[in-house]
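Hi, here's the filled form for the chain we discussed.

Project: internal
Contact: R.S.
Residues: 716
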Amino acid sequence: MTDAERVAELRRRVVTAKDNDRVRALRDQCVVDARSLLASSAEPSWTVRRGLLTRDRLAAMRFELDAPELLVGRLREPKWDPAEVEAARVALLDYELHFPGQTGHCELDLARLMSAGIDGVRADVCALLDSAEAPEARETYLGFRHAVDGLREMISAAALMIAAQHAATIGEPRRSELAELAEACRHVAHSAPRTFLEALQLLWFVLVGVMNADQASLVVPGHLDRTLRPFYEVDLVDGSLTRERALLLIEHLYVAVNAYIPDGLAMSVMVGGRDAAGRDVTNELSYLCLEALRRTRLIYPAVGVCWHEGTPDDLVELAVELMGNGYPTPAFFSDETIQRGLRSLGVPSDEACRYINSTCVEITPSGASNVWVASPYYNTCGLLLDEIAVQARLERGAGGDRSSSHAATFDQFVERYRHRLTEAIAAGVTHQNNLRLQRADGMRRPLQSVFTRDCLERGRDLEVGGATYNWIECSFIGLANLADSLYVVREEVYDQGRMSFEQLMSVLDADFAGLEATRQRFLKGYPKYGQGVDDVDRLLAETVAFICDTCAAFTCEPDGSAYVPGAFAWVQHERLGRQTGATPDGRRAGLPFADGCGPAQGRETCGPTAAVLSVTGWDHSRMIGGLAYNLKFNSSLFRSDAGFDGLKALIVTYLRRGGFEVQVNVVDGDTLRAAREQPELYRDLIVRIGGYADYFTRLSPEMQEELILRTEFEQF
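And the returned structure, exactly as it came back:
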């Protein structure tokens, strides 16, 4: 079997046979949990018991492996007696194991693991345990040690499974592959990896172990070109590895990620960027991480290029070439913009150079984060409709809302809206802080803590403030619709006096029924964000500045960290849009909002350059919570080199102007409509949504329509 055939077969399985319900069920370890908690019932410390629970979950995990696979990556579904499962569920009613709030969404710190191995990490934990004086710290370290022991048991069991397969396998080259893999697993169960294969396999074991045993979501591979570089370069020199073999192994990792993570989420890899001294760190693995997307053609991972002025041109061209040929999973991030934002949050320069989009476009410091992302989402246009309704009631003389008053000028109206937005932000902070306190009281993640700075040094689980960075990132949805709507309100109600608020509310409540001429006036009679019109763009810029200043006034548990805004949407622009009535920008009730920091769908009528000028007309660096900018081009543009050159120039212009992130769909509307009508023919058609990628045919009808409605540029 050739390399291409291997990957094609593994890819086929993921696309055709993946069962998302079964994937989610792999994390249901109720029988293991019940047994573990019964066995530890005499232990007075809940922190220690959580460490034992993580250990027992890890020790119970089993993997599957078959002929095409070169990495151990797939979990085997446990076969429990139904009666025991039911008894376990009853027993677990006495325990609080699941807490609201967020987990994962991070890159782990694997430096010590890669240099000293599991036994070395365990020795570090034991030394800290022996020297700890405070009871809480001793309990924490004991829980950490149990978790590390479980990781070792999990990997050792995988080595035994592969050894058994090796013994039963006849014929080369599979016997040699199994022998190499079994030895790799036996070795990394205790010692530092020696080879590229061992390092890659250990990385995946740790990610799966943390996600499964600590119930942490979306712990990402991260900067593979930095983590794996030493092993790659040594193996190349001694001749034990070729570039082609390394590419194949990365492709196997990508397949494993897709087999393990349910659809509709996100996993991230980042390449390139700069080190603490400002030097470009691009290396051959940076190219391989992008190139691996070509044959896998799956939704995970997104590979972000950390672009700066010193990024090699051919790395940029490789990402652009993939984009232009219809691969939506590459993206570009502005290294300078993001580092500036991280420094403003107190991240020192020598750490601000290593960050991850965790997992769509939200930024967290690598290896040191218990940052919560997209917590919560704010419906900016829903709040606008609330204020319009209040002003309409005041006009009718109905008394209105005591918290508001009649807005005689547009500036007063904006002030009332901002007061409402501030109250929503304050309520969001209170809710998130309450969730943090609940988790600190009963939730522990010992394995993730071991691989998160500075939990070991502080002797604290990351749920109680062990991590270096603990801020919370919220997200504001519909900013483009908000700016466009504010402009219409200013013109219609204040400057021109064509409508009162009562009349405007009546139009919106009717969803423009019988008022199509009015809707067209709102939609097309006024300039929109994305058309390069300063007057509209300024409304958005001023709103973003207000949001950033307001969020900066709040702090988060457990250590007074910042409350950090973003405009990352995931799928919430569709979900919140579905819940929201018609808006003054001409958007009908229930339709999706704009999908990130870009213009609303179909409004970039002056071309992509004007849109880029609008989108980069305000400071992106304060929105570390994430900004996604989606561009959509007709595939006919990329039938010659000129199309690729034009896309590269547009992207670089965007990044040079301080753009946060940019991603591209190259697919024509006819293809999307055909896929909607005959999904069985397009089941592997991948599209970019609001920061992540997904299979088009598995999206909701509303989300499919949102993608079709996006402006499809046919020239640069």
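Let me know if anything looks off before we file it.
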